[in-house]
Amino acid sequence: MNSASRSVTTREPTDCHDCPIRQLALFRPIQTDQLDTVKSLRTAQREIPPSTELYREGDRIQESFTLFSGWVIRYKTLEDGRRQILGFALPGDLLCFQPDLGAPNTHSAQTLTPVVLCAFPADDLIQMFRRYPELAIQMSWITSRDEAIYHEHLINLGRRPARERIAHLLLELHYRLTVRNLAEPDEPVTLPLNQEHIADAVGLTTIHVSRTLRTLREERLLNYQSGVLTLFDRPTLVELTGFHEDVFQPRPTL
Amino acid sequence: MNSASRSVTTREPTDCHDCPIRQLALFRPIQTDQLDTVKSLRTAQREIPPSTELYREGDRIQESFTLFSGWVIRYKTLEDGRRQILGFALPGDLLCFQPDLGAPNTHSAQTLTPVVLCAFPADDLIQMFRRYPELAIQMSWITSRDEAIYHEHLINLGRRPARERIAHLLLELHYRLTVRNLAEPDEPVTLPLNQEHIADAVGLTTIHVSRTLRTLREERLLNYQSGVLTLFDRPTLVELTGFHEDVFQPRPTL
DNA sequence: CGACCTCTTGAGTGAGCTCAAAAACAGTGG
DNA sequence: CCACTGTTTTTGAGCTCACTCAAGAGGTCG
Questions:
Q1: Predicted confidence band at B165 (pLDDT cuts at 50, 70, 90)?
Q2: A11 min Cα distance to partner chain B (Å)
Q3: pTM
Q4: Hits for CB < 7 Å against strand D across B residues 20-59
């Protein structure tokens, strides 16, 4: 139950031979011959500054990324500039996996923090699946978990009022960070989010997010100020928002 | 470009040997030896009346389903009974695919119409992936397309007003039906939805759906009454809602 | 210091909600 | 064929949650 980012110890300057392993080994030990093959992918590790666009809706990116460290948002924008954040990618998450090599991206992605990621060509990945079906099955595992997360977001946007939406999002992020050992269960965490990010994730205005955060603070439920999140009363928050942490757990082992 | 439901000609009483093929053959021809294996799955075909629960949140269903005919909704409910419809499954769609055999379902599913579906044990499916990686890759294809659909729903719920939300949903359903040859591009279609379904899908009240449908009708954009959908002015609707049909296309061939 | 963010607060508005009741419709049984 | 019941849709009236517009406060950086 180790986080991907913590295992970054030694680092090749241009290549990171073991990155897909690091992603997938979360679930199951892999045979050494598989490991060799994956190493042979020779994929590039990159360090990227904050607020950088990784890819844009409509691009034809033929790479996938594994996040080693940092935060990335995936989002869509409407013609008039309104933005919907689809999700926050944390260390260990996979980005931009599209088995259809020709298809344009359906959304954009941008770094929130300095980011270290490992990029590998999508067709290499598919070749690897072809050779090691177990990896493909694990991939289906990942995407199926992602689907459950989208379900949570949908009911959040569709059927919950502002206070619960925001609280649910912050509970989610807090939990996902603790699971990765990037936060302590009962300690404050620093998030790289401003109120606009929250607003665009839960479908509100920044102004309303500001007001709602204030009421949450006044109710002594949680505090989010200058990037520091403190959960005062997690049980009540969980109750209030109907938060089910199971969905946000890493995949169980096979 | 054939719909799964149309190819139901002969029908075994209890088994439907070829159903996963029918699902996956949409994308790519499969070798005959693969076909034999799939047939050997001996999965059961079922006919199910309308308004029947297929599975419920929290159940541990170890089967997946391919829809042959009829409509199914996938949804989640909150403690107080509020419901969010996550999506509408149409003929050819896959339901309840969960590679983690032990995990409980994260949502419920219910038939809207009489339904014919093919059920097969999840671990058989995984065995099949193990043997034929190509199928696993195609599965990742399917789920990746599903993800893009959820993205559309998220921006719909989060960033669009009622009129656009409803219009977008109806455009989506209309398009998905035409792609399956279950509707003619410029003809009215019959949908098994009442206003409550629409409301629960787009995060509104039935009352507001009623009013909004009236305005859409008065604007001569579309009409949805007693289950019949007519798109009066598709171009304007597409423009208005920012509808991108690409996402809802069946997967392109490999 | 000024320029630029981000956050906060106030005032007014409006989209979508609640509550309530009537109308339309389908099915059922007499 | 009609009364009776249950469901779905429609309409009205009033309210509220979340939005817009506008201005001020605070923090950061060159």
A1: very high
A2: 30
A3: 0.86
A4: none
